């Protein structure tokens, strides 16, 4: 009867699990960064559309700048949320460069995954040619 020597494990035994966890952590981080970028771009696009819509509405002959502010705030609330619309600053004024243009400016936070955290602000402007009154 012959006895076989016990088989030795390779030196890298178990390293696949460690590599999997490391790669999974990097992929998760990459996914979260891309997701956050998508959220910020979506918020910026909604804000830009709301500013343009508010400016066009305020530029109508029978409307005021306050009507444009209300319209822009309503568009933000529809596109994003009521809470985020309340946290945004919306102003409408005649343009300093050209008195025949109405300018709506929207400034607000860019939330990071949780809307309460906001390390930076996004500012967009919308312009429209004012109708004669």
Summarize the structure.
The chain is α+β, with helices and mostly antiparallel strands.
Structure notes:
- With 133 residues, the chain is of the alpha+beta class.
- It has one domain (19-129).
- 49% of the residues lie in helices and 18% in strands.
- The chain contains three helices and three strands, in the order αααβββ.
- It has helices at 15-58, 65-79, 82-87, and strands at residues 89-94, 101-109, 121-129.
- The chain has a three-stranded antiparallel beta sheet.
- The N and C termini lie far apart (110 Å).
- The model has no long low-confidence stretch (mean pLDDT 84).
Total helical segments: 3
Q: What's the total count of β strands?
A: 3
What does the radius of gyration come to? 27 Å
* Pattern of helices and strands: HHHEEE
Write down the oligomeric state. single chain
Q: Give the integer mean of the pLDDT values.
A: 84
Would you tell me the structural class of the helices and strands?
alpha+beta
Proportion in helices: 40-55%
How do the strands of the widest beta sheet line up side by side? 1-2-3
Largest sheet: 3 strands, antiparallel
Structural domain count: 1
Q: Quick one: overall form?
A: rod-shaped
The fraction of residues in strands falls at 15-25%
Q: In whole angstroms, how far apart are the ends?
A: 110 Å
Q: Keyphrases for this structure?
A:
49% helix; 133 residues
List the helices and strands and how they pair.
Blueprint: H1 15-58, H2 65-79, H3 82-87, E1 89-94, E2 101-109, E3 121-129
Antiparallel strand pairs: 1-2, 2-3
Helix pairs in contact: 1-2
């Amino acid at each position: 009867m012959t006895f076989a020597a016990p088989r030795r494990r390779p030196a890298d035994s178990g390293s696949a699990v460690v590599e999997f966890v490391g790669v999974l952590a990097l992929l998760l981080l990459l996914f979260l960064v891309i997701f956050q970028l998508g959220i910020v771009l979506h918020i910026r696009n909604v804000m830009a559309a709301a500013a343009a819509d508010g400016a066009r509405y305020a530029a109508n002959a029978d409307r005021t700048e306050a009507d444009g502010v209300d319209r822009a705030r309503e568009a933000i609330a529809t596109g994003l949320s009521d809470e985020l619309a309340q946290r945004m600053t919306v102003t409408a004024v005649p343009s300093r460069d050209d008195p025949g243009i109405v300018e709506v400016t929207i400034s607000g936070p860019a939330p990071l995954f949780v809307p309460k955290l906001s390390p930076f602000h996004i500012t967009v402007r919308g312009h429209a040619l004012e109708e004669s009154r």
